[in-house]
C-alpha cells in the first residue's frame, strides 16, 4: 500500500507545489494573469478529460501497468522543463504532468480497492486520502522552498526524481493484479450505472466537499485580508483547514470499518459540517475565518474516505478503474465549479453571499440524496 500512498502524495504535491509558485518565479513564461490562468487550468483540464479514459484502460489491461506508466510519464514530463527553461517547454511539461496524473491517480484508487477486503476499505481510503492531503498541504510550502533555493527548474527536477522513484517502488512492491473478466458493456449500460444513486450520491458528495475545500483555500485568505488580518493569520487558517482534512480521514475510515458510522450518515454529516463552515466564514474577523476553516476541513475529511469506500463497495470489481476515473472527474468539476460559483455571486453581490449560496447547496445535499433513494425505490 505504501507506494500507492506515495502516488497519491505525488499527484497532490505536483499539482499544488507548482501552481502556488508559477507566478512567482517564471516571469518569462507567465507574462500576464491570463497566461497564468491557462497554465493553472492546463493540469486540471487534462485530468477532467482523461481520468475516465485511463480508468477504463486500467480495467482492460490492469491497474498496475497504468499506474507505472503514468508515474514514468509524470517523471518524463517534469524532466522536460527541468532540462531546459523555455515557455513552450513549461506548457508542454504542465500538460504532460496533468495527463500522467490522469493515468496513475484513478489506477492507484482502483488498486487501493482491489488490494483490500471490503471490511478494510474505509481504513485504506482514509490512509490514501491522508497522504494525498499531506501532498496538498506541503506542496506550496516545500515548493516555495525549492523555488527559493534553485528556481522553478529545481522544483520540476525534484518532481521528476519523485515520479521515477515512486514508479520503481511500485514496480518492486505492488503485486500484479490481473484484470477481471468483463461482460460486454454498452453505452446505455454505462449511462445507467453512472446515473444510479449508488454512484451519484457518493460522487456528488465528493464534488461538494472538493468545492468547499477549494473555496476555503482560495477565498478564506481574502476574507481575512478584508478583516484586516495579516498574511500569517490567513496562512494559518488555510493550514488549519488542511490539517483538519488530513487528520479526520483515517479516523473516518476506521469508524466506517468498525460500524460506528454509516456511509449515508457520514456523508450527510460531512456536507452539513462543510455547509456550517461556509456559514461561519460569513462572520467577520479571525474567529469566523478559523472556525470556517476547521469545519470545512472536518467535513471534507469525513466525506472523502467514505465516498470512495462506498463507490468501491457498490462497483463490480472488473469496473473499478472506470468508476474511480468517473468519480475523480466529479471531484475535478467540484474543484473548478465551487470557486467559480462563489466568485460569480461575489461579483454580483459580495463574498459573504457567495459563501451563503454554496452553503445552502451543500446543506440541501442530504435531502436530494433521500429523494434519489426513494425514487430508486
Keywords:
377 residues; mainly alpha; 85% helix; 0% strand
Protein model, in words:
By secondary structure, the chain is mainly alpha-helical. It contains 15 helices and no strands. The longest helix is centred in the middle third of the chain and has 30 residues.
- Helix count? 15
Q: What class, by secondary structure content?
A: mainly alpha
Quote the average pLDDT.
Answer: 84
Choose one word for the global shape.
globular
Unreliable stretches, pLDDT < 50, 5 or more residues? none
Q: How helical, in percent, are the residues?
A: over 70%
Care to count the β-strands? Answer: 0
Strand content: under 5%
Q: Give the CA-CA distance, first to last residue.
A: 38 Å
User: How large, in whole angstroms, is the Cα Rg?
Assistant: 20 Å
Question: Layout of SSEs?
Answer:
Blueprint: H1 2-19, H2 22-25, H3 33-61, H4 63-83, H5 87-114, H6 121-150, H7 152-173, H8 187-194, H9 197-226, H10 231-257, H11 263-281, H12 286-314, H13 320-348, H14 351-363, H15 365-376
Short description:
85% of the residues lie in helices and 0% in strands. The chain is an all-alpha fold and 377 residues long.
Amino acid at each position: 500500500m505504501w507506494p500507492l500512498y506515495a502516488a497519491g502524495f505525488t499527484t497532490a504535491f505536483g499539482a499544488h507545489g507548482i501552481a502556488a509558485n508559477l507566478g512567482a518565479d517564471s516571469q518569462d513564461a507567465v507574462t500576464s494573469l491570463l497566461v497564468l490562468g491557462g497554465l493553472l487550468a492546463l493540469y486540471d483540464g487534462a485530468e477532467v478529460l482523461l481520468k475516465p479514459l485511463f480508468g477504463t484502460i486500467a480495467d482492460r489491461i490492469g491497474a498496475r501497468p497504468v499506474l507505472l506508466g503514468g508515474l514514468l510519464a509524470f517523471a518524463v514530463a517534469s524532466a522536460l522543463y527541468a532540462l531546459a527553461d523555455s515557455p513552450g517547454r513549461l506548457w508542454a511539461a504542465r500538460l504532460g504532468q496533468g495527463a500522467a496524473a490522469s493515468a496513475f491517480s484513478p489506477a492507484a484508487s482502483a488498486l487501493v480497492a482491489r488490494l483490500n477486503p471490503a471490511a478494510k476499505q474505509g481504513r485504506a481510503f482514509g490512509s490514501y486520502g491522508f497522504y494525498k492531503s499531506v501532498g496538498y498541504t506541503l506542496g506550496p510550502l516545500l515548493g516555495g522552498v525549492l523555488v527559493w533555493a534553485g528556481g522553478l527548474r529545481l522544483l520540476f527536477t525534484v518532481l521528476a526524481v519523485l515520479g521515477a522513484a515512486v514508479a520503481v517502488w511500485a514496480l518492486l512492491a505492488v503485486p500484479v493484479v490481473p484484470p477481471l473478466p468483463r461482460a460486454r458493456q454498452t453505452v446505455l449500460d454505462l449511462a445507467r450505472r453512472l446515473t444510479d444513486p449508488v454512484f451519484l450520491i457518493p460522487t456528488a458528495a465528493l464534488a461538494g466537499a472538493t468545492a468547499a475545500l477549494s473555496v476555503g483555500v482560495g477565498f478564506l485568505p481574502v476574507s481575512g485580508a478584508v478583516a484586516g488580518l495579516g498574511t500569517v493569520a490567513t496562512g494559518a487558517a488555510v493550514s488549519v483547514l488542511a490539517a483538519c482534512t488530513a487528520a479526520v480521514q483515517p479516523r473516518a475510515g476506521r469508524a466506517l470499518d468498525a460500524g460506528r458510522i454509516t456511509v449515508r450518515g457520514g456523508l450527510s454529516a460531512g456536507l452539513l459540517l462543510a455547509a456550517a463552515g461556509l456559514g461561519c466564514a460569513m462572520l467577520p474577523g479571525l474567529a469566523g475565518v478559523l472556525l470556517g476553516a476547521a469545519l470545512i476541513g472536518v467535513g471534507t475529511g469525513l466525506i472523502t474516505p467514505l465516498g470512495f469506500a462506498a463507490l468501491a463497495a457498490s462497483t463490480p470489481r472488473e469496473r473499478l478503474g472506470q468508476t474511480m476515473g468517473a468519480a475523480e472527474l466529479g471531484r475535478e468539476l467540484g474543484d473548478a465549479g465551487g470557486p467559480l460559483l462563489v466568485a460569480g455571486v461575489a461579483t454580483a453581490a459580495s463574498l459573504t453571499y457567495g459563501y451563503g449560496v454554496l452553503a445552502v447547496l451543500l446543506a440541501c445535499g442530504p435531502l436530494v440524496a433521500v429523494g434519489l433513494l426513494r425514487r430508486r425505490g
